[in-house]
Amino acid sequence: MKRPLTPHLRKGVALAVGLALTGACSAVAHRAPAAARTGDAPPAAGRHAATLWRADPARGTGNFEGTETKPGTVRVVDDPAGRHGKSFELHTSGEKVDGPTRVRVETRGHRTSAGPLRFSREGDVYYIGWRSMWGPLPTKKGEWVVLWQLKDYGSGAATPPLSLRARGDGTADLEYCDPELRTTRLWHTPLTLHAWHDFVVGIKVSKDPARGWVRLWHDGTAQQLPGGTEQYPAATLRGDWVTDKWGVYRSDGDRGAATAWLNSPAVGRSYRDVAPAG
Prior knowledge:
Elements: H1 7-36, E1 53-54, E2 66-70, E3 73-78, E4 86-92, E5 104-108, E6 110-112, E7 115-117, E8 125-134, E9 144-153, E10 162-167, E11 171-177, E12 183-190, E13 197-204, E14 213-218, E15 221-222, E16 232-233, E17 241-250, E18 258-268, H2 271-274
Antiparallel strand pairs: 1-18, 2-5, 3-4, 4-18, 5-17, 6-7, 8-13, 8-18, 9-10, 9-17, 10-11, 11-12, 13-14, 14-15, 14-16
């Protein structure tokens, strides 16, 4: 037969239980930011996941899964503006290598110690950040130059879900192409040459436009997308996987040499992981 607890013992048991519950709640509160680090929104200051990939200029083109130079060169040089140190220079003479091939000089994908980083799993969230400068960049009315794209690969690949394009009307825009190949201009801005601009694109990976989404920051400011919100529903996965490309890829009507400068490209799980610093 159990002896009843004396008032003194009851007080001690209550104190011990209270301390245990307080410790458990503290542990949950401490762990909660870790879940937020891979969520849809940028995390609170000081709470962010490790960058998944960041280009090191010392590795040159070894940072990328590949380069496409038709024709062109990709090399590391000092920032011609003297502001951001070593940068990638992607230059094309603009002379077509043959009739069917469009002029392009681009990096493709991201190489890590574990292999290529590709976006393929439904529901994953990625943020891609970089700094770009262009010039010369000849454009012509009715033509286009792709400066960055989220490109699809594998079975069912058709056209990039996202493209940052320079137009012949003095603007640049972010264009979304849905699974039915219908295009929507998500955002646009005046095109300025010989000046650095920062970009961060956030994506939730999905073939379902009701589940995937796109976000955009330009020069550190979140941009409003169609519908007046900062997050646009989009099918960001096409084919077996998507990855991104930087450089110059253009329609046949544009002529002449072109150069794209790239600095601080990175991929992470939050805006804070990849936003260019300084």
